[in-house]
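To: structure desk
From: M.T.
Subject: fold request, one chain
Message: Could you run this one when you get a chance? Sequence is below, nothing fancy, just the single chain.
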Amino acid sequence: FFTIYQIWLQTLEGIAVPKCTDCDTDKISMAIGIVGSCIMPHNLYLHSGLVKTRNVDRSKDRSISEANFYFLIESALALFVSFIINLFVMAVFAHGLYERTNRDVLNECLARHDPYGPALFANDTKLVDVDIQSGGVFLGCLFWYSCAIYLGSWYSGCWQSSTMTGCY
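Reply: Done. Structure tokens follow.
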């Protein structure tokens, strides 16, 4: 994220002053999806887990007020860190893949001698269709292959976290 200078400046600007130029229904739907994926609804259940695991003397208003204060801090901090991490990931992918064709991404992979890019990205002018696999390969093309492995372990951690949170 920090190696691509214009991404973090534009991201900070977008957080401070949200804007959408030439917005149509598709772009607004995409923006709503991005906001939803950043907040990660399964983490909203985090607050119930925090409240359930603490012993609070409910007969005293002071104890309830103090517990609510610490629950607010703990859940806000967890959601903020989650938001920042997801924001960084989405900013890198948006910078590299938004309105790019398969040929653009393929040429980038070929320039870096990536063995997986040619098998995944066609040599055509269709807009690149991103999924978990192509996102990882693109990350390997853009930076280095160990980033794709890191992304896979990050996905695994996200899946485990959401499963444990949802099943709790």
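Reply (cont.): Residues 1-96 form one domain. Let me know if you need anything else for the meeting.
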